[in-house]
Each structure stands twice: as C-alpha cells, then as structure tokens.
Design brief:
single chain, 372 residues, alpha+beta, GMP Synthetase, Chain A, domain 3, Glutaredoxin, 5-stranded mixed β-sheet, 17 helices, globular, DciA-like, Thioredoxin-like_fold, redox-active center
Length: 372
C-alpha cells in the first residue's frame, strides 16, 4: 500500500526533464481527456467521483468509502490557507484505517483528474449503501445445460465443472456476456466493441511472451503496485508458461495500467530494460513488490532492487526522463481506457474481458472453453 509522501517531492522535482509534470500526472491527464462528457462544477465533480470511485482509489477502498461532497476549508495538512476538502462517508469500523490512508486518497484523486482537485479529506461516519443488484439473467434451457455438463465432465473440481457448464450454456445461447463462478470468486466476461477489436491484437511496441503466431492471445493490463498483479506473475505465470506459452499455444501481451505514481515509475523502468529483458525485469519487480513497496521511499527501494541486475542510479534517472518510455506507458493506458479497463489486473483472453479470473486452473479452464 503506497502512503502519501512515499515519493519525496524534492526527489520527484530533481528528475531530469519535465516528464509532463510527472508520470502519473500525465496518466491522470490522459484519463481526464479520455472521459466523455467531462462535467464542470462542484456538484458534477462529486457525481463523477462517485461514478468512477473504484477506478480512482481501487476496489478495496471503494467498498468502504463514498464521496459525499467537496467543501472549502480554512486550512488543511497541505495548505496553510484555504483548500478543498473531499468529504467521505465511511463505516465507523473502517474510519481509522481510512484516516491513515488519507494521503493516498488525496494523491490518487489528484492524479486521476490530472490537477490538484483536493487538498485533504474529511470523514463522516455512516453506513455505505450496497449497489443495486444486477438484474437476473434468463436461464439457458435444460437441454443445453445437460449438453455442456457432459462436455465439462473431465474437470475434477465440482464447482468449477458446474460453472463451466453454465458458461458454455450461455455462450451457446449467443450471449457474449456471462458470469462464471470459479472456486470462491467470480469474474465477468465483458463485451468488447467491434471497432476496438484491433486493440486486442499485438500493437506496435507491445511486449509479447511466446510465439507471435500462437493461436490464443492473453493480454494482461497490470499495475506494479497492485498485489493481485504480483500474485498473477508469481503464482499463475509459471504454470501458464509451462503448459500454454512454451508449448506455442498461447502468446501473452503485457500492457501497463499504472494506478499511482510509483507504479508509473516502475512501468518506465520496465520499458527501459529493452525488449530482450523486459519480462525479466517485470518478473523481478513483481516478485520483490513487498520489499520495495513497503519501504519508506518505494521509488528508491525499487531502484535498489533493480541494482542487483546492474541498474545504476544514473540509468534510472535517465529512464524517468525518457519520453519514449513514458509514451509507451501512456499508449497502454489509452488502449486500456478504450477497452473499458477500470481495475488491475484485467485479462483479455481471445477478445473477451475476463477481469481477474483467478489462479492457473481458472485460466486454463477458460482457454479450454474458448481456446483455438
């Protein structure tokens, strides 16, 4: 978890080049430009905060907080004079935890909007109302369910086998959207617009692991500060590589979708590794995530970790000032925004958005179902 002040201001300002203010500020500005119908005014801003809150602060914080209002204050922790306060509703049991994360909330809101929108937060205790339930989907007919149950009979896990049968039955009905429960979790298949399908093929500058002509494609939109993204690389990738990528059946494309300034810096450092060593550096960054992310200065700790493979401080500074590396990160964010990515990791498997399916068994089950 990245706390406010983890990247010292004087270090950020000393980096070579303007970098368009800084990496994630640029990403936030891009997100702002990509948003359609950008509203103006305090009320409209609060409405947008509510609508995009999960994308701004992440799903965990979004579950226990709700933006209520933007107000003026005579003084805040970051401003001796007046400043803007974001009032957040939070359940009493979570108030202390959220208060400790105030700096992170301020940083993410400002980065997302691409400008200094708020100076501080103020908590108001109260229950968070649950979101409206999704309307139930019509059930497929019994004959189709029985047919798909027979096809999924080879899957050992009973819950996964039943879920695959339901998925196959819905696909058989011609539905491109389905919900597949996998073990204790669930993931949604999100429809991709036809005009955006070209973004689901290897793009210029993409990093591809595996044979470029492999019949199946997995695109991973990831943030280096996301623990679930690290889990994917640590727990899922070894099996995926052994059974699918190395055998030539699957190509994996890694795309950057940083959720904060530290993740943006990590993405730049990965880009500066070059095509030959890109995935080695990505793997090292994810495997050492806890080590550098929990330090007092994550950016410095990150560079220290990469020094083990020969990265010097001067090379790191040059990478942060490298517009080409930042442009690639921004291009990935833009493609993700266009495809509807709102959280990390988000996996696209053969043109379908499966969000975060879970472990290697879940992904393998999907590939067996929709694989080519």
């Amino acid at each position: 978890m990245v706390m406010r002040g983890s990247v010292p201001y004087h270090k950020e300002r000393s980096l070579k080049g303007s970098m368009r203010e800084n990496g994630f500020r640029a990403v936030g500005g891009l997100a702002q430009r990509l948003a359609s119908g950008l509203a103006k005014g305090r009320g409209a801003s609060v409405a947008r905060l509510r609508a995009e809150w999960s994308a701004i602060v992440g799903p965990d914080l979004a579950r226990i907080t709700r933006p209520e209002a933007l107000t003026a204050s005579r003084g805040t922790r970051s401003s001796k004079g007046g400043g803007k306060l974001l009032r957040l509703r939070v359940p009493g049991a979570a108030a202390l935890e959220v208060q400790h994360m105030a700096g992170q909330v301020v940083e993410r809101v400002n980065a997302y909007f691409g400008h200094k929108m708020i100076d501080d937060i103020r908590l108001v205790q109260g229950a968070i109302s649950a979101r409206a339930a999704t309307p139930p989907r019509p059930a497929p007919d019994a004959r189709r369910v029985a047919e798909m149950t027979e096809r999924a009979a080879s899957v050992k896990d009973p819950e996964l086998r039943a879920a695959l049968a339901r998925l196959g039955a819905r696909i058989g009905m011609g539905r491109r959207q389905a919900v597949l429960g996998v073990l204790a979790g669930a993931f949604a298949v999100r429809e991709v617009r036809a005009q955006d399908l070209k973004l689901l093929e290897p793009l210029e500058g993409d990093h591809v692991l595996g044979k470029r002509d492999a019949p199946n494609t997995l695109i991973d939109y990831a943030s280096f500060t996301c623990p679930f993204c690290a889990q994917f690389y640590i727990a899922v990738m070894p099996t995926l590589r052994k059974e699918w990528i190395d055998s030539g059946k699957l190509r994996l494309i890694h795309r950057h979708f940083p959720m904060d300034v530290v993740a943006t810096r990590a993405s730049q450092l990965a880009e500066c590794a070059g095509p030959q060593k890109f995935f080695e550096r990505v793997d090292l960054l994810f495997r050492s995530q806890v080590e550098w992310l929990t330090g007092s200065d994550p950016l410095a700790e990150m560079v220290k970790v990469l020094a083990k493979e020969g990265l010097t401080d001067d090379q790191a500074q040059a990478c942060f000032a490298n517009d080409k590396a930042l442009d690639k990160v921004l291009a990935d964010v833009q493609s993700g925004q266009t495809l509807g990515v709102r959280q990390t990791p988000t996996l696209f498997i053969n043109d379908q958005n499966y969000l975060n399916p879970g472990g290697p068994e879940a992904i393998a089950a999907i590939l067996r179902q929709v694989g080519r």
